[in-house]
Specification:
There is one protein chain. By secondary structure, this protein is mostly helical. The longest helix has 20 residues. The mean pLDDT is 89.
Length: 58
C-alpha cells in the first residue's frame, strides 16, 4: 500500500492545530496527552483505526 505523504503531512498539521486550539481554549496538556494515549492504546489493541468510535469500541 502506497503512503500518501501529502495526506500524512496534512493530517499531522490538522492534528497539531487541533491540539493547539484545545490548549489555547484551556484544556490542560495532561488531559490532551491522556486522550492521545488512550486512542493510541485502542488503535494498538484493535490493530486498526475504527471508522466510528463508540462506547463498545473503547
Amino acid at each position: 500500500m502506497a503512503v500518501d505523504l501529502d495526506g500524512f503531512e496534512q493530517a499531522e498539521d490538522e492534528l497539531e492545530q487541533w491540539l493547539v486550539d484545545q490548549a489555547e481554549a484551556g484544556v490542560p496538556e495532561i488531559v490532551l496527552v491522556g486522550l492521545l494515549r488512550d486512542y493510541a492504546d485502542d488503535i494498538e489493541h484493535l490493530g486498526y483505526v475504527p471508522r466510528m468510535w463508540g462506547h463498545s469500541d473503547r
